[in-house]
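Handout, page 2. Input:
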Amino acid sequence: MDPKQQRTTSSDFSKQGSEQAERIKAELSTRRRTRGESLQELYQDISCLMELGYPSADALLTTCIAKEAFVIALDDACMQIEIRKREPRNTEEALSHAVKIDEQYVMLQSVELEDGHPGRSTHCVSSAADLPGTDTAAVL
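Output:
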């Protein structure tokens, strides 16, 4: 292969790589947690998309983008608000907060079912104190 053809091939490869990175970034920005998907699965998918979409980006930048993409992908306004209130420094901390909040949601739902009032709660759970009839010390 002559050098001119080789440059064209390299240029084409670079263009394809750039287009693929843009598709991955678009997927990252539209990614939402699906019904039944665990928080850990969502976290892993966001991390994978970040590696593919931003392979050589600055670590500080990717940390910020990944954290925000994860929070948005939760697709739950109350959980997003609660996680942002806690100001996680990275995606791992956002995941940790999401797991705790998700556990509180499950506890709240079980309390409501026991009370015979499923789905009556329309507020966000911001702490264990928000759960009716729970011992805060036992939850934490």
